[in-house]
Amino acid sequence: MPVKRSTSLLLARREFVLGLLALPAVAQSAAPIAGSPDSGHLLLEAVFFRQATPKSGKPTAPVANATANATLTPLLAGLRRAGYPLLGQLAIHLPVAAGATGVIKLEESLPGAGLVGRLSLARSQLLTIQLNAHCEDCRTTDDIDEHRRVKFGERHYFDSPVIGAILSVNPLTGES
Asked: What pairs with residue 64 in β-bridges?
């Protein structure tokens, strides 16, 4: 019977986070970057959180280059209300030209979050994200190691039994 209880808890967590993903996104208000409409500049946003039982401790999450009107900001309040401890929030302008790959080291971008790994964004015919993340403080080997095709403006949920992440990628267009 413990297996059923554990499985139902994981399903309930997943349904909650997927419900948060359905929230409308706030319009992006980042300053435009001069260049062509496809200048290769992207806004990569990520929220990392611990998969904990609701109403557990709520440590202060590190924030890296976060903008006040980032599209994932509305999700933070819902995660906090439900008791998911935030590990960090990331909003970075990443120049990635067509045919290139941009890499972010989590331990450098979110110092103090307890996350180790990398986030790679590749642009070719398809836009893909590879997330390799490990929680140093979690005392387990359950990592996120996923490679996924993504589309601009969509929210993507990555999870493991210990940590979760919600990611979004948006193009930054400039004036011609």
From this structure: 90
Per-residue 3-state assignment (H helix, E strand, C coil) for 12-27? HHHHHHHHHHCCCCCC
H/E stretch holding 86: strand 86-95
CB 87 within 8 A of CB 61: yes
What is the helix, strand, coil percentage profile of the chain, to 5? Answer: 20, 40, 40
pLDDT above 60 for 117: yes
Burial of 93 (C-beta count, 10 Å sphere; 0-12/13-18/19+):
middle
pLDDT at 33 exceeding the cut of 50: no
* Residue 87 near residue 110 (C-beta atoms within 8 A): yes
pTM for the predicted model, two decimal places: 0.71
Write the CA distances from 129 to 62, 120, 147, integer angstroms.
22, 6, 6
What is the rounded distance in angstroms from the CA atom of residue 124 to the CA atom of residue 155? 20
Order of all β-strands in the sheet with 144-150: 101-105, 115-123, 127-135, 144-150
Length in residues, the chain: 176
pLDDT tens digits along 124-154: 889 999 999 998 877 777 789 999 999 998 9
